Amino acid sequence: MTSIVTISGGLSQPSSTRLLADRLTTAVRGELGEQAAGEVVELRDYAHDITDNLLTGFANQRLRQVLELVDRADGLVLASPVFTASYSGLFKSFVDVLDPESVRSKPVLLAATGGTERHSLVLEHALRPLLSYLRAQTVPTAVYAASSDWGNDTELGQRITRAAGELAAAVRARPERAQSDPFTDPVPFEQLFRNTTAH
């Protein structure tokens, strides 16, 4: 089963960011077929948990489940509203508590929502550099949805379809991740004994 995890950074309910996240998730699952599972996480439900993690350095059980979802995912969809020409503080705080290794080389589709089209550059000047720093594999097409896109969303639908196809292709091309079980290939006792007596 292929796992696609979508992180929605919207703060309101209902949220245009969640609406875009749902459409992207559906499109990616459609590209991947019946063997794909999709899960959407709304960060607003974990705002206190994320803050506690930032203050204490430890994730509680609720947040740990989300972090493990991200780690196990075959592909990610990350969507944030635009606040002051950048991603939201809640979205950035979540990224700050992620283990960087959990997104390293992982296919990621970037998305954002905002009031006007002029905020669309947030995808390239804020979100993509952030994920590049974490060494994620961002797909070429990022999806921005302004308020005007929801009325006549033919072009938005085309961007969603193109980006979903790119993420699905990147997920399919990704090599199987080896399961790191330390007990599958134990070191022989003789070798361990030899190492301790050599000093």
TrEMBL record:
Ranges for the NADPH-dependent FMN reductase-like domain? 3-150
Q: From what superkingdom does this record's organism come? A: Bacteria
Q: Name one Pfam family in it.
A: FMN_red
| Keywords, in A-Z order | Flavoprotein, FMN, Oxidoreductase
Q: Which GO terms describe its molecular function?
A: oxidoreductase activity
This protein's record includes keyword Transferase: no
Q: What is this protein called?
A: FMN reductase
- Name the source organism: Actinopolyspora saharensis
Classification of source organism: Bacteria, Bacillati, Actinomycetota, Actinomycetes, Actinopolysporales
